[in-house]
Specification:
The complex is a heterotetramer, with two copies of chain A (about 325 residues) and two copies of chain B (about 220 residues). Chain A is of the alpha/beta class and about 325 residues long. Chain A has two domains: about 180 residues, Dihydroxyacetone kinase, domain 1 (Rossmann fold); about 130 residues, Hypothetical Protein Tm841, Chain: A,domain 3 (2-Layer Sandwich), CATH 3.30.1180.20. Helices cover about 30% and strands about 20% of the residues of chain A. Chain A has a six-stranded mixed β-sheet, with helices on both faces. In chain A, α7 links the parallel β10 and β11. In chain A, α2 packs across α3, α4 packs antiparallel against α5 and α6 crosses α7. The longest helix of chain A is centred in the last third of the chain and has 17 residues. Chain A is globular. By secondary structure, chain B is mainly alpha-helical. Chain B is built from ten helices and no strands. The N and C termini of chain B lie close together (about 10 Å). The chains are: A alpha/beta (about 325), B mainly alpha (about 220). The interface between A and C is large, with 69 and 69 residues. The complex binds adenosine-5'-diphosphate (2 copies) and magnesium ion (MG) (4 copies). One adenosine-5'-diphosphate sits at the interface of chains B and A. The site of one magnesium ion (MG) has 7 residues of chain D, from loops.
């Protein structure tokens, strides 16, 4: 394994420490609970918004704490849902008179940790609601599975409820907005390479030199099927078609289009993918009103990309356009 | 069975096995899962071992409850809530019971643990989870106890049954956990959590008559 | 090769097209000259600032065109200096009464293309000055070489002259500021993996599974030496020590610290590196006043990182803090 | 020598060789350079071939000048300015000369091209660049012309000398271009640009008496 890492067990804490050192005016790091929160702390005039998840998805979610986005993030170790205590302690630390909204990507471990933390917090008299995000169309939503996974689409949920919370919306209103965004957001990803968790020190699965993994999740879980590498035009079809047909998105729709890098794919390739996807959507009469290209929800060093579409209405478009400020910046 | 010292032996063996098998459990979980099982269990049970002396030892039930709180609160992934629930449920059964715990009580504790896991994570038997190992293992213990076998013999047959059950998960389709997302591709490799249970059962069986267990019993 | 690419020859044009489609309100793309410029065009009240270079370094430089930064960027093909015509045409398109400043990383091909374009532009009556950037301490600055390379430090030059230009500084003033920033900026990089140019389709050099390349440039040129992978603490020493001793940076200095990803290294690792470097600098009495973590100047999909330090004075610090807006954004 | 048709043959052969060897030249440049030489030359000379019919053919000098402008303006990397300068300098010598160009003129064109390259890129002989191949190759042509050899024979000895010179760059330390950054590590592989010159010289020698060249001569 070739990575910038000291003791693999300290990978997450050392990353969080660096994040806090780089953003001393805006972020507070609470090492005991892997917790990153706004330096300004919670306000009783605003619902506090928290997202937790496994680590390894940076910038999600520790690097999107800031005005207009999250109030705190409590990640677990790499690809492991946070222990329940982390969530519970985070909830207590950001408690606001207007309540706390917990955003959770739909995975068993995360659901259970947040469920239990919510129970404990409610027992403490904290008003808490939990919203589950499940935008991944790669996973069939049949009765025998655990439902769809939450992947890069969670960015839009955070952005929308973050903006609404800043404008004073109450907890029920945020739940309504968040559920609406989830209901119109769909994603699909593919991997060109496997990722290597520091603690494992080796790739999570083997891909041949010309193989790709389609419908991969963000935890290095293998996807639904393997295929041969193909020209970018075809790869975009593989990602875009199931997304379009799922909601479905139809001619006349206005959408936000996100091309998300999985960690090891350079931004040059992401823009190339963006251009192709944009053209295909416009050809279908679907108009791209907002564009997002870069890394939003990664899988460590995995090369690959996902495409997310959000069907816009005036409310969602306004919330996405609202200003926000986060710890990751280039200035 | 001097319950507290047995509980101590069992918890310590589970913890040590989890720490020793970090890499192996991680590799098992990376076949169709996300590879974090070993890390999660090892980090969590390290905390159990570190806080070992601090757990309230009023009785076996109390001890198990304190351990369960640590596991539930400090282990990440799916395993924290699942394994923590198992310990907390076992603890409740033990606490409800006055005095020394017999083989029947152990079986009741395990059955309650399984119900707790099902309630917490929504899995049923046949979903290719550690439940598919816990259930036959518990049946074996029940049968051993019913036929009057000694502790070591009961544990040996529990371990054999756990191992066979773990292997029997190989042809199943995962319907819970990260492996479930791969659908049919989860066929062909055993459930990682189930194998972990079998490895732990084998460690318990192998050490049942070891000085660590028997001396501990004597010491108490 | 596993990449998002159609025809490798169209890699750069397709990327630029995507960039322009994603930023329709702010950027104009001129396909004939690989040119990305501000949609608003040049203004006679402001010196226009242009940077060109080979492609493959994104976001440098096509993705940092915008208010407070560049007026235009004219990249060549992957790792190849732009043809002279591209530079000349760009200069004509952004011509302003206050003149044009050309920023050039110090490489033979780039120098020659910009020199010739400057000659032609001057002959056309356009006021042009050229500033060379050479911040890479991995290359010894002896008489027989072509001098040092320009690497990620170019970001600070762009940012400083971009801010000053926006405030109305004239061309001579921008040259003074740019030269000052160059004189206090030093960088050093290392590669964990080689990069794969689309047209070559294979890695530019071979690195063993435990080998790293120290002092690597941003074009996949091999570096000065090879070493074994080591813990992040040691890797940071390898990067930081030659940077610190070169200027030198000394106790009492205020600096900007940049940890730049080379394209394939996830931001989690970059923050981990940042935390280590920050601590080491503070331990030496060098205080980190501004922090930059992310991808600024990459080498396609190369895993690796570089560290840049800038010695700050009030003028430079003020210019770095000034607002700017570029095409790459996460909102 | 009917100058224009010779110039056309030479330029076309150079262009075709650059296009045909894109991958090979790129690989050579990636040993210690950045691998773009093949791509830059191929894309640039493709433009030359595409615009082939449009170049002003008033005389050989004018033709070479128009080609040189295209190369200078449209080839990226170091090669555009370097190769473009070579063509522009050769063109100037040819234009200054009235009437048919002889062997001496070709030598003068090459010497002027080398001076132009040195002025543009600052390299000297021994810096491990294509100059270290152009110089001995030009010497060989000069000698062939002086001893009254025919065109094919002159080109054959030029090619042999270019190949030997390209190989002789292997032990040199690069002092110019991207390879220079690797210092001592540039020792042990030949200069990419120098090998490209040798390959082109060999193509010219191999085809000197081919129908494409001789028929072209006859046609004019
Ligand atoms: N819903 C569930 N109920 C019971 N056991 C489960 C459930 N989901 C997963 N498991 C068990 O947990 C193991 C994986 O644990 P772990 O790796 O910690 O979780 P995650 O899948 O979140 O990464 C599986 O091998 C399986 O035995
Ligand atoms: N300053 C120079 N003068 C003459 N030739 C040079 C010079 N620098 C490089 N070269 C030649 O150019 C070749 C590399 O060309 P190319 O790959 O296009 O340039 P770059 O080094 O910018 O990538 C080298 O192999 C060498 O022969
Ligand atoms: Mg997990
Ligand atoms: Mg797992
Ligand atoms: Mg080059
Ligand atoms: Mg080159």
């Amino acid at each position: 394994m070739k990575k910038f890492v000291n003791d693999p067990q300290q990978f997450v804490p050392e990353m969080l420490k660096g994040l806090a050192l780089a953003n001393p005016d805006t972020l507070t790091y609470v090492p005991e609970y892997n917790l990153i929160m706004r330096k300004s702390g919670p306000s009783d005039d605003k619902v506090s918004i928290v997202q937790g998840s496994g680590s390894g998805h940076e910038p999600a979610h520790v690097m999107v704490v800031g005005p207009g986005m999250l109030d705190a993030a409590c990640p677990g170790d790499v690809f492991a849902a946070p222990p329940m205590d982390y969530v519970y302690e985070t909830t207590k630390l950001v408690n606001s008179a207007k309540g706390v909204l917990l955003l959770v990507n739909n995975y068993t471990g995360d659901r259970m940790a947040f469920d239990m933390a919510q129970e404990l917090s409610l027992a403490d008299g904290i008003t808490v609601k939990t919203l589950f995000i499940d935008d991944d169309v790669a996973v069939k939503d049949s009765t025998w599975t655990v439902g769809r996974r939450g992947v890069a689409g969670n960015f839009f949920v955070i952005k929308a409820v973050g903006a609404a919370a800043e404008a004073g919306a109450d907890l029920d209103e945020l739940m309504r907005i968040g559920e609406k965004v989830v209901s119109v957001t769909r994603s699909m990803g593919l991997a060109l390479t496997a990722c290597t968790p520091p603690a494992k020190g080796a790739p999570l699965f083997e891909l041949g030199p010309d193989e790709i993994e389609i419908g991969v999740g963000i935890h290095g879980e293998p996807g639904r099927r393997r295929a041969k590498i193909a020209p970018a035009n075809e790869l975009v079809d593989i990602l875009l078609d199931p997304v379009i047909t799922d909601l479905p998105f139809v001619a006349g729709d206005r959408v936000a289009l996100m091309v998300n890098g999985l960690g090891g794919t350079p931004i040059s390739e992401l823009y190339l993918v963006y251009g192709i996807a944009h053209d295909k959507l416009e050809a279908l009469g679907i108009s791209v009103a907002r564009s997002y290209v870069g890394e939003y929800c990664t899988s460590l060093d995995m090369a690959g990309a996902s495409i997310t579409l959000v069907k816009l209405d005036d409310e969602i478009e306004g919330l996405l356009a609202a200003p926000a400020e986060v710890g990751v910046r280039i200035f | 069975m001097t319950s507290l010292s047995d509980a101590e032996f069992i918890v310590r063996t589970i913890a040590q096995t989890a720490v020793d098998n970090e890499k192996y459990f991680g590799d098992l979980d990376s076949v169709v899962g996300d590879g974090d099982l070993g890390f999660s269990l090892a980090r969590g049970f390290e905390i159990v071992l570190k806080d070992w002396d601090s757990f309230d030892r009023t009785d076996a039930g109390t001890f198990l409850q304190k351990v369960g709180i640590t596991i539930t609160g400090r282990i990440g992934g799916t395993s924290g809530p699942i394994w923590g629930t198992a310990f907390l449920r076992s603890a409740s059964v033990a606490k409800a019971h006055d005095g020394e715990l017999g083989g029947d009580d152990v079986v009741a504790m395990l059955r309650s643990a399984m119900e707790g896991i099902m309630a917490r994570g929504g899995a049923s038997l046949g979903d290719k989870t550690l439940l598919d190992v816990l259930a036959p293992m518990t049946d074996a213990i029940e049968q051993g106890v019913a036929t009057g076998q000694g502790g070591a013999a009961v544990m040996a047959s529990a371990a054999a049954s756990a191992r066979a059950a773990a292997e029997a998960t190989t042809p199943m389709i995962a319907k819970r956990g990260r492996a479930a997302y791969t659908g049919e591709r989860s066929i062909g490799s055993p459930d990682a959590g189930g194998v972990a249970v079998a490895v732990i059962a084998e460690a318990l069986a192998a050490n049942w008559d070891s000085p660590e267990h028997t001396q501990q019993n004597t010491a108490n």
